[in-house]
Design brief:
The protein has 10 helices and no strands. By secondary structure, the protein is mainly alpha-helical. It has one domain. The model has no long low-confidence stretch (mean pLDDT 89).
Length: 254
């Protein structure tokens, strides 16, 4: 446990010094501001720039539109930024030799994997919370309606999917020799999940549902309990991926 704490602190300090924490917080804060503003201004901009004589009838924007922008931006750009920021989480230290020096001095390889994952998880959680709180604040200010429901359960699902993606990335980093290889393996895993959704009943168990059914939760189209199997599979898969990352890293020749 002492090895884990020391390495976790070391990871957090490094993420601060390399501006990874700052980049994540700033990017997600910008998303948080953009979501309600985009929902509010898009109808006005469309009406302004439509060709003269062309009439278009758009519904009055609501909080639903703001949260639709939130989940669109985070599931697309937000997760991509997160994966890119952490893509070299293991390969960079191995190439520089800094991690080898620590391991030869008695640092546990399990502590390395778990410390890195805990640091990534902390930053992902803080970044998503930043975007969520910012979006929520501006949405309440701009849209005085009660159309949006299940906000916390829907963002929890997105958070859990992000945890799963980080586990995939870290496990891929133990297998690949470079950050590009880790990105390729992580992308391949995401594609496989998308292919699984071709089968109608697969979404019930597919981790990708946690990042694709958010707006259905917000609009009360589905119940949170309908995602219980997907949540269970995602948690089990994340734990299995972390266990695999530890076992692979222990056997990896550095």
């Amino acid at each position: 446990m002492s090895h884990f704490r020391v390495f976790f602190k070391k990871e957090m300090v490094e993420h601060i010094r390399t501006y990874k924490l700052l980049i994540m917080l700033v990017v997600f804060f910008i998303f948080g501001i953009m979501n309600p503003l985009t929902a509010k201004l898009t109808p006005e901009l469309l009406e302004k720039f439509m060709p003269e004589g062309v009439l278009i009838s758009l519904p009055e924007p609501s909080s639903i539109d703001s949260w639709a922008q939130f989940y669109k931006n985070i599931t697309q750009m937000g997760l991509i930024v997160t994966v890119l920021v952490f893509s070299s989480v293991l390969s960079s230290e191995l190439s520089k030799g800094t991690l080898i020096n620590l391991l030869t001095k008695g640092l546990s390889r399990t502590a390395v994997i778990m410390g890195k994952f805990a640091a990534m998880l902390t930053i992902w959680t803080a970044s998503l919370a930043t975007a969520f709180v910012t979006t929520w604040g501006y949405t309440v200010f701009l849209f005085s309606d009660d159309y949006s429901a299940n906000l916390f359960s829907s963002v929890f699902c997105l958070w859990l999917f992000g945890v799963f993606i980080l586990a995939v990335l870290l496990c891929s980093s133990t297998l690949a020799a470079s950050s590009y290889g880790a990105l390729l393996l992580t992308g391949a895993a995401a594609v496989c999940l998308a292919i699984l959704n071709i089968f109608p009943k697969a979404w019930k168990y597919n981790p990708l549902s946690l990042a694709g059914k958010n707006m259905e939760l917000v609009t009360n189209s589905i119940m949170f309990s309908s995602l219980s199997y997907a949540i269970g599979v995602t948690v089990a898969a994340a734990i299995a991926l972390l266990a695999a990352a530890v076992l692979i890293f222990k056997r990896k020749q550095l």
